[in-house]
Automatic annotation (TrEMBL), chain A:
This is CO or xanthine dehydrogenase, Mo-binding subunit. SUPFAM superfamilies: CO dehydrogenase molybdoprotein N-domain-like, Molybdenum cofactor-binding domain. GO terms for molecular function: iron ion binding; oxidoreductase activity. Coiled coil: none annotated. Residues 1-10 have a biased composition (Basic and acidic residues).
TrEMBL record, chain B:
It comes from Streptosporangium subroseum. This is Carbon-monoxide dehydrogenase small subunit. Keywords: 2Fe-2S, Iron, Iron-sulfur, Metal-binding, Oxidoreductase. The keyword Zinc does not apply. PANTHER family: OXIDOREDUCTASE WITH IRON-SULFUR SUBUNIT, XANTHINE DEHYDROGENASE IRON-SULFUR-BINDING SUBUNIT XDHC-RELATED. GO terms for molecular function: 2 iron, 2 sulfur cluster binding; metal ion binding; oxidoreductase activity.
Length: 810, 176
């Protein structure tokens, strides 16, 4: 790394990722800048500094393969008790009486709590409607009623079963239609019509553009609850010290969780400290909208001892916050030559019994995909509806997989009606760099067209489509995602401190954390690149709300982009200060100095012929060990250059958008309706790929979850709950059902991103359900309108088509 | 009344006293013996996160009653690797980025360890079938399969190195 920190401002070129430039097959004009963007990239024509773009091993790999990593359930504190929760067996009921006396008498029990032992405060990220333990009412099967702390988990569970609760069962609304029916029972008395949140807009005059359209397609598509299915369930360990509680939680968002937990506990924020344990899978499900940590804290307070509370797998299915199901009526208009004109969306989302993040999910689902195409007009009406079902919330994709499935189906219908091959239709309408959506998404780097072309090539679209195989079908879809989204107040920033140590290492202090994506590794790479150190010499802290910088955490595909910029700036400042110190120590101008491989390099002094090499640690120590010595520390901060969307979701959500095009080939067994996804090609524009295997892993894992959403993940329901809430019924994809994958990245560079990078965590999930459905329709002519796409639905679809044909013949 | 049980755990004799011999091996490992490397994912023997090796066979620890382990040989993730380096299966997962959150990793590693102990050069179908027995929610399995194949190669390289060195010890040697 050179000492010259004045980075050039030339535009970036393709083929900039440290390998031979790939010819970009997209002819695009020089973009017109829509605003002044901060430039953090390197001067044009320079390769990215190592280890950016290389397959650096994860900094946490060894501790994870050896079983040493400490997850939520691995925390062990002296005198620690174990908790268990008693949950409602009813979808809607009044709690008449609770008798805890038998539970309290069980040997080994140290605390039994009910709603009466809580602060009786309703909490929630957007619409506070959830009590830590039921106050008078339960609203879904799984609602928390009482809890126990005992010497071991088994005793705690037995004690919870000894709590006797008298319920007066009330009528429940177990679906969207029931909830919206005239005179339906109310889930919450303060939500008339069971509507928790709604908004509507018409941007551009939809009716006028539909009137000018040659082709209009329309349909209704419904998605289902999808559970995160993290192999590690939600868990917490709580310990009080006087009036302050420390929570060791497997949360994705320690700082946001602290705020909410403090509210729920009736405490000032300063009374709660959250420390992130290793997180065994997040995907949105561990972003602090459920009661587990709150109950754990109350139990620990009552018991006067540390308590650990872990969801069982059944509880994870009954009472975590799965993907928000959505029913979307979509209408699209096109000109006869395939230009999209207008879109009309009527979206009803199933909130479940409490709100959590579904309110924000609704917003993202309504507007995000409009950033993909040059719509002339978009109208939407979106409603979030309470039901007496398990509350829903954030899940990777944040509304987009559900909306993209519905809108993608409409686009697929349109391609067929227009007689245009899908890749061609998408290319005709796809957004480009400099585009501005009707909701003011301001698109910076954008290689969507490159993604479409590469995905078509990878799947062999045109060859295979012109030589069709019976019962096989093809489909393509596209999606857009944010790199951080302004939604928790008017801030989507991050800050970091880089401390250079006397032993020649760097410690990156950040509160963003690690949920498995490898974020700490890529942040270490960014710091290493900026500092001229080896990744092995960079440590990245885990979030601790007392010790690290404030951070919003792992959500909205934000850490690489937002935190990456903060870490890069902090490292740059630390490097600058290091070189200033070395300059004083060596009596040489800082401009002559650079750091490489952990050494400060200077050209030979006058009259000497040996270049100077000074270990970083030596410089740091000398800077400290002198009168009025100082540590070498850099501070960096970055706020996403985005806008806080208003009440009708107008505003540029993010400073950078990532894109994907995916194409699938499926085969359907006409005898059973069973679907096999044979091949899936995904091409992602995430700007610079900082670490190829980690980025590929994000894409591969997202596709697997998309296939689960499309095909396998479902429950049988009875009385408002899954009949067997475990993996026996709810099938996560296994390795055998994964298709052959082609994962590629577009040549792309985001000028506002760290070394050109954008987010990549969610994007690849978004189009999967839609392309699987479209490919099935292409294969056997059956278009499924409700997820998941089971063999049964296809079988009956084929059967009724056959019956219709036979009827015609008769 | 406590019940005394003796078995081999990671090549050491252990004696434990449990209140309930129907307790699962998983709970005993994690809560009584402090070996938290074995993870609990579903507690019904479905996800594979708690896979350990009992008498050479990969089994879910959540379904094994500890009372039936008397005199048996149990190996957990804590048995692999050590001061001399990672086990070839572990090394392969690191090298191939075959993990993300890491929670299912000990189970995958133990399942593959059992496979390679039984069949040092398994064909791809056996590798696939073994990986298919364990859930992973993060990776989409692509890099786990890469890691499994790499583990075979790494183990072979270790075996060759050991035989060249003329060591009396097989790859299993250090585990006695």
């Amino acid at each position: 790394m050179t000492a010259d920190l004045n980075r050039g401002k030339e535009p970036m070129t393709a083929g900039f990722r440290g390998k031979a430039p790939t010819p970009v097959d997209v002819t695009r004009e020089v973009p017109t800048p829509t605003r002044e963007l901060p430039v953090t990239g390197l001067p044009s024509g320079r390769v990215l500094p190592p280890p950016i773009g290389s397959a650096v091993e994860r900094i946490d790999a060894a501790e994870k393969v050896s079983g040493e990593a400490v997850y939520a359930g691995d925390v062990r504190l002296p005198r620690m008790l174990h908790g268990a929760v008693l949950r409602s067996p009813h979808a809607s009921a009044r709690v008449v009486r609770i008798d805890t006396s038998r539970a309290e008498r069980l040997p080994g029990v140290h605390a039994v709590i009910t709603g009466a032992d809580t602060a009786r405060i309703r909490w929630g990220a957007f619409r506070p409607d959830l009590y830590p333990l039921a106050i008078g009412r339960v609203r879904y099967v799984g609602d928390e009623v009482a809890a126990v702390a005992a010497t071991d988990a088994e005793t705690a569970r037995r004690a919870a079963e000894l709590i006797s609760v008298e319920y007066e069962v009330l009528p429940a609304v177990l679906g969207l239609d029931e909830a919206l029916a005239e005179g339906a029972p109310l889930v919450h008395d303060d939500a008339p019509g069971n509507v928790a949140h709604e908004f509507a807009f018409d941007r551009g005059g939809a009716d006028e553009w539909f009137a000018r359209s040659d082709v209009i397609v329309e349909g209704v598509w419904q998605s289902a609850r999808q559970w995160h299915g993290s192999i590690e369930t939600i868990g917490c360990t709580a310990e009080w010290s006087r009036d302050r509680v420390t929570l060791w939680v497997n949360t994705q968002t320690p700082f946001l969780a602290r705020q909410r937990y403090a509210t729920a506990l009736g405490l000032p924020t300063r009374s709660v400290r959250v420390i992130q344990t290793e997180v065994g899978g997040g995907f949105g499900g561990k972003s602090g909208d459920d009661n587990t940590s709150v109950i754990c804290a109350i139990l620990a307070r009552r018991a006067g001892r540390p308590v650990q509370l872990l969801n069982t797998r059944e509880e994870e299915f009954l009472a975590s916050r799965p993907r928000t199901p959505m029913r979307c009526r979509v209408r699209l208009g096109f000109t006869s030559d395939g230009l999209v004109t207008a879109k009309d969306l009527d979206l009803i989302a199933d909130n479940g019994a409490y709100t959590g993040k579904s309110q924000a999910v609704l917003g993202a689902a309504t507007v995000r995909h409009d950033a993909l195409f040059a719509y002339r007009a978009v109208r939407a009406r979106s409603r979030l509806v309470y039901t007496n079902l398990v509350p829903t919330g954030a899940f990777r994709g944040f509304g987009n997989p559900s909306a993209d499935w519905a809108v993608g189906q409409a686009w697929d219908l349109a391609a067929a009606r227009l007689g245009i091959e899908m890749p061609d239709l998408l290319l005709l309408n796809a957004v480009e760099e400099g585009g501005v959506s009707l909701h003011n998404h301001r698109i910076g780097s954008c290689e969507l067209k490159q993604c479409i072309r590469k995905a078509a090539t990878a799947i062999g679209w045109y060859e295979k489509r012109s030589n069709p195989t019976p019962h096989r079908g093809f489909a393509m879809g596209v999606s857009v995602h944010v790199s951080g989204r302004r939604s928790f107040g008017d801030y989507d920033g991050s800050s970091a401190i880089v401390r250079l140590t006397e032993d020649g290492r760097a410690v990156v202090i950040t509160g963003e954390g690690e949920i498995g994506t490898g974020a700490r590794t890529t942040l270490a790479q960014i710091a290493a690149a900026e500092l001229g150190l080896a990744v092995a010499d960079v440590t990245v802290t885990r979030p601790d709300t007392d010790l690290t910088t404030h951070a919003l955490g792992a959500l909205a595909s934000r850490v690489t982009y937002v935190a990456g910029n903060a870490v890069k700036r902090a490292a740059a400042q630390a490097c600058e200060r290091l070189l200033a110190a070395a300059s004083r120590q060596l009596g040489r101008p800082a401009s002559e100095l650079r750091v490489e491989d952990g050494l400060v390099h200077a050209p030979p002094a006058l009259g000497e012929d040996v270049p100077v090499r000074l270990p970083v640690g030596v410089v740091v120590r000398a800077e400290l060990y002198r009168p009025n010595g100082e540590p070498v520390v850099g501070l960096g901060s970055f706020d996403n250059p985005s806008e806080f969307p208003d009440g009708v979701r107008y505003g540029n959500e993010s400073g950078a958008y990532n894109f994907a095009a995916e194409a699938a080939e499926v085969e359907v067994d006409p005898a059973t309706g069973a679907v096999t996804v044979l091949e899936l090609a995904a091409v992602v524009d995430c700007g610079t790929v900082l670490n190829p295997p980690l980025a590929e892993g994000q894409v591969e894992g997202a596709i697997a979850q998309g296939i689960g959403m499309a095909l396998t993940e479902r429950f049988d329901w009875a009385g408002g709950a899954p009949t067997r809430p475990n993996f026996v019924d709810y099938k996560l994809p296994t390795s055998q059902i994964m298709p052959r994958l082609h994962v590629e990245f577009a040549d792309s560079y985001e000028p506002t991103g760290p070394f050109g990078a954008k987010g990549v965590g969610e994007i690849a999930l978004d189009p999967v359900a839609s392309i699987v459905a479209s490919a099935v329709a292409d294969a056997v002519g059956v278009r499924v309108h409700e997820l998941p796409i089971t063999a049964e639905k296809i079988f009956w679809g084929i059967r009724s088509a056959t019956d219709r044909r036979d009827g015609d013949r008769r | 009344m406590m019940v005394r049980l003796r078995f081999r755990l990671n090549h050491e004799d252990v004696e434990i006293h449990v209140r309930d011999p129907a307790s699962t091996l998983l709970d005993v490992l994690r809560d009584d013996l402090g070996l938290t490397g074995t993870k609990s994912g579903c507690a019904i023997g479905y996800c594979g996160a708690c896979t350990v090796i009992v008498d050479g066979e990969a089994v879910p620890a959540c379904l094994r009653m500890v009372g039936l382990l008397e005199g048996r040989e149990v190996r957990t993730i804590e048995d692999l690797g050590g001061p001399e380096g990672l086990d070839p299966v572990q090394a392969a997962f690191v090298k191939c980025a075959g993990l993300q959150c890491g929670f299912c990793t000990p189970g995958h590693v133990m399942a593959l360890r059992a496979l390679l102990d039984e069949e040092p050069e398994p064909d791809d179908e056996r590798i696939r079938r073994t990986v298919d027995g364990n859930y992973c929610r993060c990776t989409g399995y692509v890099k786990i399969l890469d890691a499994a194949r790499e583990a075979v190669a790494l183990q072979k390289a270790v075996a060759v190195r050991n035989s060249r060195a003329g060591a009396a010890t097989s790859p299993e040697g250090r585990r006695r």
